[in-house]
Amino acid sequence: MTDAIAYSPRERAWLGAIAGGGLLILNGIFCYCVVFRPELLAAAMTNPIALAFIVEAFVMTGVLAYLLRKWKVMRLAWGWFVGLALIGGLAFAVPVAALWNQKRDR
Fold first, then answer.
1. Apex 29 CA angle, 27 and 30, nearest 5
2. Residue 32 falls within a domain, yes or no?
3. pLDDT tens per residue, the chain (106 residues)?
């Protein structure tokens, strides 16, 4: 594999839009519910189906972080990827990790 994957300006714009939507919209809804509707979070934690999806998301975030680093798709260490995913979800972490690998043409 090459050191960097080249993205067109259009692809970079879409990746940025997806990252922004993941951080602001999807994570915003989660943060709103945590602050203003905590009973919904408590209900999700007591629901075995929801809990299974939550555990799977955590496991697959770690696996994805490992594989993206191993396949040289991203330059970030796996811990940074997991941190980004915890801050803004996978819809934020994957595009940011992909764009982080870019070398700017000057």
1. 65
2. yes
3. 456 678 999 999 999 999 999 999 999 999 999 999 999 999 999 999 999 999 999 999 999 999 999 998 888 899 999 999 999 999 999 999 999 866 555 4
* CA angle centred on 54, ends 98 and 64, rounded to 5°: 25
Give the predicted TM-score (pTM) of the model. Answer: 0.84
Number of domains within the chain: 1
Assigned domain for 57 exists? yes
Domain assignment of residue 4, yes or no = no
